[in-house]
Design brief:
Helix content is 10%, strand content 17%. 8% of the residues are buried.
Length: 118
C-alpha cells in the first residue's frame, strides 16, 4: 500500500473539547472526499479530487490530499512551492463531502447537533 493508505486511519479519536463531551457523540474524523473549485460556484462539485484525512487541513502532509492533485491544480489554487500554509487563493473554494454512518437506534428520537470546527 502507498503512504496515503498507510496513514488512512482515524486521527484524534478523542473528543476535541472533553469538558463538553456527552454520553452520545460521534467523531467524524477520518477519510472525507474533497474537491477544489471556484469560490463563485454555489452547487457541490460533480466530481471529487480525492480523499482527505480529517482533521488535517489540505496543506498538511497527514491529510494526504496534496499528493492527489495535479501540478496544474496546485498552481491554480496557489498551493505550489513552500510555504503552503497561506492557503487557497481568494477565487478558490475547498469542498468536503462525507456520507454519514448509520446512526445508533437510540439517536433516532434525539435532537442531533452537527458541530464542525476549523
Amino acid at each position: 500500500p502507498d503512504k496515503w493508505h498507510e496513514m488512512a486511519q482515524v486521527y484524534r479519536p478523542e473528543h476535541p473539547r472533553p469538558i463538553f463531551q456527552r454520553k452520545a457523540w460521534l467523531n467524524l474524523n477520518g477519510e472525507w472526499h474533497f474537491a477544489l473549485g471556484s469560490a463563485k460556484e454555489r452547487s457541490p462539485p460533480q466530481s471529487w479530487d480525492g480523499l482527505i484525512n480529517v482533521p488535517f487541513c489540505l496543506q498538511a502532509e497527514l491529510s494526504g490530499a496534496l499528493n492527489q492533485l495535479t501540478q496544474q491544480q496546485l498552481r491554480d489554487a496557489g498551493l505550489h512551492g513552500p510555504p503552503l500554509a497561506p492557503g487557497l487563493r481568494r477565487n478558490q473554494a475547498l469542498w468536503y463531502r462525507l456520507e454519514l454512518p448509520v446512526l445508533p437506534r437510540a439517536w433516532h428520537c434525539m435532537r442531533i447537533l452537527l458541530h464542525i470546527g476549523a
